[in-house]
Amino acid sequence: MITYYDDHSVQVTSTAVRVDGRSYPLAELTTVWHRRGDRSWRVLAGRGATGAALAGPLVAAVLGIALAVWLQRSAAVTVAIVGVSVLVGLAVGPLADFLFEHLDRSYARGSREMEMWAEWRGRPVRLLHTRDAMRFGQVYRAVQRAMESLPSAPGRPGPGRTAPGRPATGPAATGQNVIGSSGSRPSPRNRP
């Protein structure tokens, strides 16, 4: 048995997908797809606040220098205002690494809710629901690799197709992002 992904609540192996204690054998999954939810304004506002925190000291430094030039005071006062403004601008240096790391983690986590669904025993089931885009991508790719490793079974629908006698419904019919039984995304064919 090969383990493609394993964390505290999700395990993807060459035989099954286990999510929060429930097990779904890969042989019983016919189609896997994902849905993206709406953007979280809270996450976007947090990114904007981080950007403002990065730009704030630099803007204050530029405004201080402009103020020193505009006031036209003695050389000592001008040098003092410019010196303090430069120090304020340099204050962003030690904070920049922390803020850029925070901003980078925010993009890795994503700003949308992500859901992974599968057709299991003829009915859709939600396998995973998370806001962590990086984790979602890792799990989704692990399921894709696991599905690709399955041997082709007779009576099992190919990628983006339905089983014989079943109407074309679900994610493949609506154009959602789908992993078929071979793990590949359905694509139109140019040849008969």
Proportion of residues in β-strands = 15-25%
Rg over CA atoms, rounded to whole Å, is: 27 Å
Widest beta sheet: strand line-up: 1-2-3-4
Identify the quaternary structure here: single chain
The count of DSSP E runs of length 2 or more, i.e. the number of strands, is 8
Order of helices and strands: EEEEEHHHEEHHE
Helix/strand-derived category reads: alpha+beta
Measured distance between first and last alpha carbons: 38 Å
Explain the overall architecture.
This protein is α+β, with helices and mostly antiparallel strands and 192 residues long. Helices cover 45% and strands 24% of the residues. It contains five helices and eight strands. It has helices spanning 41-71, 75-90, 92-109, 133-149, 171-174; strands at 3-6, 10-13, 16-19, 22-25, 29-39, 112-120, 123-130, 178-179. Strands 1-2-3-4 form a four-stranded antiparallel beta sheet, covered by helices on one side. Strand 6 and strand 7 (123-130) form a beta hairpin. Helix 1 (41-71) runs antiparallel to helix 2 and helix 1 runs antiparallel to helix 3 (92-109). The chain is rod-shaped. The two termini are 38 Å apart.
